């Protein structure tokens, strides 16, 4: 009984891989952010400069254009799937992407609120 092998379905394998991938991605982002911001000898003005870099990243015109294009692609996928007769299921699949794109697109306002820095 101790030597029985557990057989996973393809869906369970993909779900496990996705969880591991997201964990590694989030860990990498946290570690890189901590390394960029945390310093052994730093001042508040240096930290404000780092916050300014984050604001410049999220409030840049390039990011706004990319998010606008991504949002248009999401809505085009929904329209195409609706024309194919998959309406509600396509909306359920694409809606997390739409929410993520809107969240990233409005990140300038969110970061300026929490960091107290005005966007450029």
Cα shape:
flat
Helical content class: over 70%
Rg, please? 21 Å
Spatial separation of the terminal alpha carbons: 65 Å
Q: Given the helix and strand composition, which structural class is it?
A: mainly alpha
**Mean of the pLDDT scores?**
79
- Uncertain spans, ≥5 residues at pLDDT below 50? none
What does this structure look like?
The protein is mostly helical. The chain contains 5 helices and no strands. The N and C termini lie far apart (65 Å). The model has no long low-confidence stretch (mean pLDDT 79).
Write the layout of secondary structure elements.
Layout: H1 10-37, H2 44-58, H3 61-83, H4 87-105, H5 107-115
Helix pairs in contact: 2-5, 3-4
Please name the defining characteristics of this protein.
120 residues, mainly alpha, flat
């Amino acid at each position: 009984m101790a030597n029985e092998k557990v057989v996973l379905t393809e869906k369970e394998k993909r779900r496990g891989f996705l969880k591991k991938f997201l964990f590694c991605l989030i860990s990498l982002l946290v570690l890189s952010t901590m390394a960029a911001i945390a310093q052994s000898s730093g001042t508040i003005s240096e930290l404000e400069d780092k916050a300014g870099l984050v604001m410049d990243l999220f409030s840049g015109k390039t990011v706004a254009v990319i998010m606008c294009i991504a949002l248009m692609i999401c809505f085009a996928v929904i329209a195409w799937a609706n024309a194919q007769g998959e309406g509600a299921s396509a909306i359920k699949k694409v809606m997390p992407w739409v929410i993520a794109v809107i969240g990233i697109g409005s990140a300038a306002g969110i970061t300026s609120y929490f960091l107290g820095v005005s966007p450029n």
